[in-house]
Design brief:
The complex is a heterodimer of chains A (508) and B (34). Chain A contains 23 helices and two strands. Chain A has helices at 5-24, 36-41, 48-59, 62-75, 82-107, 112-120, 123-154, 166-182, 185-213, 215-222, 225-228, 239-255, 259-266, 271-280, 282-301, 310-316, 321-329, 332-370, 376-400, 403-417, 421-429, 435-455, 476-507; strands at 462-467, 470-475. In chain A, helix 1 packs parallel to helix 18 (332-370), helix 3 (48-59) packs antiparallel against helix 13 and helix 9 (185-213) packs antiparallel against helix 18. Chain B is 53% helix and 0% strand. Chain B is flat and about 25 Å long. The model of chain B has no long low-confidence stretch (mean pLDDT 75). The chains are: A mainly alpha (508), B mainly alpha (34). The A-B interface holds A 98-99, 102-103, 106-107, 118-121, 271, 428, 431-432 and B 5-6, 10, 21-22, 25, 28-33.
Chain lengths: 508, 34
């Protein structure tokens, strides 16, 4: 593939614009960025509109734009699980998170681990929450870079060799610099540009491409029947139906437990801002449905059979479907806009994720276990260094290891992060739960979930659970968090009783 | 006295502000630290 100069020029120009915005953000709603809650949470001052853009930019990532259509392109209807997933997530956001916001605001919590540690009086449980959050998020950052690499490759930059990595490394250095200078204000401001570009790209794609192909009916007619619908279950297995439903529900339960979602939620200025966003963010789910359709459009165009894109598919697999579709359907200047939208769509979540990991490290590991009396300025300084280390780790990971590792680890990340549901949910709704019981539940959930994924060779998170002769293939995260919940709930009164008993014995 | 989510002053403030949600949370949750 030759370098597409027009597309690259538009791409670089838009990238420079957002880089400038990233640095400018330090002056937006000016405050002392040497305080962690200012640097990492934007001073908790974001109103409904900024939070809408921030959360939209945070949750609908570059990898979403690449991977969801790629899944529809490669596997068919199963890829549409992303739509019910992002619909189910908002009632959860509406009900649960304003409550968390109020407590976090009152008690000065900056992370989920702060809340859990304070609520249950357990540093160990808080550590478990922090480590889970960091481990689940790091591969997620790596996947954003994979998304960025795919579009950089599609612009025609030579693949292979050190030089081919230069654009990604430059992009990452810019990201690191503005994150350090402006903190969460940078992705909040950039998210506005990113979303405008994404909306323009998606609307253009769903109007122009079907018009070229003879309408949606022609597109659906070109898609093989078995990819249009889920395969109906046969015999004594619930097949793709239970897999689809549990994947959507489990993913919805997990989404707002990710540190970057939590950062987005906690940076809002009130519980009502979160409630309004729970209603307004559905607009993105609608767009996500359209984005998923791009997978079918790529099938209808037959991009995988076009020799011009053989190299791209060879390098990136089905993830190349969307870039190839854009290259086949649009003029170069618009390809530049579309690819910039995806690359900027990687910058926003990558920045928020690295800030969130840095806050977790600083608040719940460094401050708790290394320097309990560290002054506030040091807290912010350590967070800025940690955020840099996290990003560098992600780029080294992407450049030195096969992409499949990042995908496998992200899959495990989803299973791990959902294990925070019992401590967070029970912390908000149950009057008294024992921290040790929650810790045992967490360990059991992580263990069984990882085991379930391992039995599938880490290639899928769908575990075929066999009960009474019926196989229910389902999302391992959902199965394992059920075990976690049950253990925590059952063990809590027992541990309480034992501790009370031993305390009484000691008193005698 | 049981440990609380809010300080006594903040409880009074929350009642005065008619911040029902906060007052309810205060009555409901048992925090380990004051």
């Amino acid at each position: 593939m030759n370098l597409d100069l027009t597309a690259t020029t538009v791409f670089v120009a838009l990238f420079l614009l957002v880089a400038w915005l990233g640095f400018f953000a330090a002056r937006w709603r000016k405050a002392d960025l040497n305080l962690l809650h200012e640097w990492g949470l934007g001073g908790r001052r974001f109103g409904t509109i900024v939070t809408w853009f921030l959360l939209g930019g945070d949750l609908y990532t570059a990898y979403t734009f690449i991977a969801v259509p790629a899944l529809v392109f490669g596997k068919g209807a199963m890829g549409f699980f992303a739509v019910p997933y992002t619909i189910l997530v908002y009632p959860i956001l509406y009900l649960v998170f304003p409550r968390l916001w109020i407590i976090a605001h009152e008690r000065g919590h900056l992370t989920a681990a702060d809340f859990v540690g304070d609520r249950f009086g357990s540093r160990l449980l808080a550590l478990a929450v922090a480590v889970t959050g960091i481990l689940a998020t790091m591969p997620y950052i790596a996947l954003q870079l994979v998304g960025m690499e795919v579009v950089i490759g599609a612009l025609g930059f030579p693949q292979g060799g050190l030089l081919s990595h230069a654009p990604l490394i430059i992009a990452l250095l810019i990201l690191a610099a503005f994150t350090r200078t402006s903190g969460l204000r940078a992705p909040a401001l950039i998210a506005i540009v990113k979303d405008l570009l994404i909306f323009i790209t998606v609307i253009a794609a769903v109007v122009v491409i079907p018009a070229k192909l003879g309408g949606f009916s022609a597109i659906f007619a070109a898609v093989p029947q078995e990819r249009l619908l889920l395969t109906p279950p046969g015999g004594d297995s619930l097949g793709a139906y239970s897999a689809y439903a549990t994947l959507a529900f489990g993913s919805a339960l997990a989404l707002f437990l990710y540190p970057h979602s939590m950062t987005g939620v906690l940076s809002s200025s009130s519980g009502n801002v979160i409630r309004r966003n729970a209603a307004l963010l559905s607009a993105y789910s609608f767009v996500l449905g359209l984005i998923a359709l791009l997978g079918y459009m790529a099938l209808a165009v037959g991009v995988d059979k076009d020799t011009a894109y053989a190299e791209g598919f060879g390098n990136f697999g089905p993830n190349f479907a969307v870039p190839a579709l854009f290259l086949a359907s649009f003029q170069s200047w618009f390809v530049g806009i579309a690819f910039a939208a995806i690359a900027i769509g990687a910058l926003v979540p990558a920045a928020i994720m690295s800030i969130a990991c840095a806050s977790l490290f600083t608040r719940n590991i460094y401050r708790q276990f290394v320097r309990p009396d560290c002054p506030k300025a040091e807290e912010a300084r350590i967070a800025k260094i940690a955020s840099l280390v996290v990003k560098l780790g992600a780029v080294v990971f992407v450049l030195t290891l096969p992409h499949v590792y990042a995908i496998e680890l992200q899959l495990l990340g989803g299973i791990w992060i959902i294990q925070l549901l019992p401590p967070v949910l029970l912390g908000l709704y149950a009057r008294s739960i024992n921290a040790a019981a929650l810790l045992v539940g967490w360990a059991a959930g992580i263990g069984t979930g990882t085991y379930m994924a391992a039995t599938q060779g880490l290639a899928s998170s769908i575990f075929p659970l066999a009960i009474f002769g019926v196989t229910i293939p389902g999302y391992a995260a959902l199965y394992s968090v059920l075990i976690n919940f049950l253990l925590a709930m059952c063990l809590s009164p027992i541990v309480d009783l034992l501790t009370r008993h031993s305390a009484t014995s000691a008193a005698r | 006295m049981r440990p609380t989510l809010l300080t006594q002053e903040r409880v009074a403030e929350a009642s005065a502000e008619q911040d029902v949600e906060l007052v309810l949370l205060e009555q409901f949750l048992v925090m380990p630290k004051a």
